[in-house]
Amino acid sequence: MITSENSIQIRYDEVDKMGWVYHGNYAKFYHISRTELMRNIGLSDKDLEANGIYLPVIELNIRYMKPIYYDDQIIIKTVLQNIPSSRMIFNHEVRNKNNELINTAKSTVVFVNMETRRPMKAPDFIVNRIMLHFDN
C-alpha cells in the first residue's frame, strides 16, 4: 500500500450558491492527490506521457457525508492498495481541520497507449517503481 496526504484550502470559486464546495470539484481534488502520490514515488504525468502512456479515469465513486465551505482547510488522504496490472485503483478520504470525515471516494485509472489509444498492461518501469514504495 502507498499512502499520500495533501492539504488544500478551499477557494471562493470552488463553492456554490449554498456556500458549500460544489460536488464536481471533488474530482479535481482527487486528481491532485493521485498526481501527488505518483509524483512522491517518482512518476509524474510528464514522465508517463514521455513514455507514451495516458492514465484516464474510467470510474469515480463518491460518498458525500458533510459539506465543506469557503476558506476551509481539507486533508485528502489517497491510498493505492494494489500493484497495478492494467489499471490502478485509488481510495480517497477527505477530512476537515477537525478530522471529521467529509467524504470517501474510489477512483480507477487505466493505462492507455498514447499512439493506439488502447488499454495496455502497466509497463514494468511503473510496476517496479510502485513495488519499491509499496508497504504490505
Description:
The protein is of the alpha+beta class. It has a single domain (2-133), classed as Thiol Ester Dehydrase, Chain A (Roll). The protein has 3 helices and 7 strands. A 5-stranded antiparallel beta sheet has the order 1-4-5-6-3, covered by helices on one side. A two-stranded antiparallel sheet has the order 2-7. The N and C termini lie close together (6 Å).
Summarize the structure.
The chain has 136 residues and is an alpha+beta fold. It has 3 helices and 7 strands.
In CATH, the topology is named: Thiol Ester Dehydrase, Chain A
Q: What's the pLDDT, averaged over the residues?
A: 94
Strand content: 35-45%
List unreliable stretches of 5+ residues: none
Return the string of H and E elements: EHHEEEEEEH
Helix content: 10-25%
Total count of domains: 1
Shape: elongated
Q: Measured on Cα atoms, how large is the radius of gyration?
A: 16 Å
> What is the CATH architecture descriptor?
Roll
Provide the CATH top-level class: Alpha Beta
Number of helices: 3
Query: Strands of the largest sheet, in order across it?
Result: 1-4-5-6-3
CATH superfamily: Hotdog Thioesterase
Any key phrases for this structure?
single chain, 136 residues, alpha+beta, two-stranded antiparallel sheet, 7 strands, 24% helix
